[in-house]
Amino acid sequence: MLPTSFLKIEWRGWFENYIHNSMKLLEGKTALVTGASKGIGRKIAEVFAQHGANVAFTYLSSVEKGQALEQELQAFGTKVKGYRSDASQFAEAEKLIEDIVSEFGTIDVVVNNAGVTKDGLLMRMTEENWDDVMNVNVKSVFNVTKAASKVMMKNRKGSFINMSSVVGVQGNAGQANYAASKAGIIGFSKSVARELGSRNIRTNVIAPGFIRTEMTEVLDPKVVAGWEANIPLKRAGEAEEVANACLFLASDLSSYVNGQVLPVDGGML
Ligand SMILES: NC(=O)c1ccc[n+]([C@@H]2O[C@H](COP(=O)([O-])OP(=O)(O)OC[C@H]3O[C@@H](n4cnc5c(N)ncnc54)[C@H](OP(=O)(O)O)[C@@H]3O)[C@@H](O)[C@H]2O)c1
């Protein structure tokens, strides 16, 4: 006979799956997720497809992973397509939006997630490392938002979700370029929220804390343990926990949320 604790766990898992599968929060919506070949972006694409969205996503250097994701997401039964596109290039972002509109018909949700780090103390930071991080992290958000906003303005609806970081709010030694880029995303998003709100287009920011992905797995385990000790929840976050916050901001559940920064950080900020 099975112990009662086992039955409770099984029942809970079944119930959670049932709720997840029966509530399709993004049915009928088309979403673009930039930088979805791995990490947080990949999970967002998966959760969106699971919730009934048609999903366009981008990748850049991880071509095989991007192609594999396109195959995997077919299982959810919605339209899915991956594009190799450099979000930091203005012309490529414009072409991307044109291609998505001709393939999917429209765009309702954009998650500007693509990002990189090139860490180093200010004294050693090169101009190239500054420029690369600013171009990929902030200029990309301008590029994609500008192109996609034309589509949303015609539709008189839309939701932009821009991926910042707790570091953009509180700073971090060794990440002056990254922190500046992530703070820039907040200022940009709050401005766009004021400009486009009258067209029923919402713009919000997510500020993840320390999330377990390829971006953070390169960190020294001692540094990681130090960070975790300072997080009120005493653990790193998972990509799915960020994706679930994106799901809320992408869906109509957040229809009156605009111009906000939502930390997903275990209480760090
Ligand atoms: N992990 C964390 O703890 C954490 C915390 C706060 C904020 N964030 C932010 O969350 C986002 C995702 O982070 P992550 O940890 O999932 O990072 P990740 O695992 O390194 O993934 C980054 C993604 O961005 C894509 N990308 C990079 N440059 C690009 C470009 N120019 N054009 C298009 N795509 C590009 C990469 O694609 P390719 O591999 O194909 O080049 C990859 O899919 C980033 O904006 C990051 O700053 C992460």
UniProtKB/TrEMBL annotation:
Gene3D superfamilies: NAD(P)-binding Rossmann-like Domain. It holds the Pfam family adh_short_C2. Signal peptide: none annotated. Keywords: Fatty acid biosynthesis, Fatty acid metabolism, Lipid biosynthesis, Lipid metabolism, NADP, Oxidoreductase. One of its GO terms (molecular function) is NAD binding. The active site is at 178 (proton acceptor). PROSITE patterns: ADH_SHORT (PS00061). It catalyses: a (3R)-hydroxyacyl-[ACP] + NADP(+) = a 3-oxoacyl-[ACP] + NADPH + H(+). One of its GO terms (biological process) is fatty acid biosynthetic process. Its EC number is 1.1.1.100. NADP(+) binds at residues 113, 178-182, 211. The keyword Protein biosynthesis does not apply. It comes from the Bacteria. Pathway: Lipid metabolism; fatty acid biosynthesis. InterPro entries: 3oxo_ACP_reduc, KR_dom, NAD(P)-bd_dom_sf, Sc_DH/Rdtase_CS, SDR, SDR_fam. It is an enzyme of class 1 (oxidoreductase). Belongs to the short-chain dehydrogenases/reductases (SDR) family. Catalyzes the NADPH-dependent reduction of beta-ketoacyl-ACP substrates to beta-hydroxyacyl-ACP products, the first reductive step in the elongation cycle of fatty acid biosynthesis. This is 3-oxoacyl-[acyl-carrier-protein] reductase. The lineage of its organism: Bacteria, Pseudomonadati, Bacteroidota, Sphingobacteriia, Sphingobacteriales.
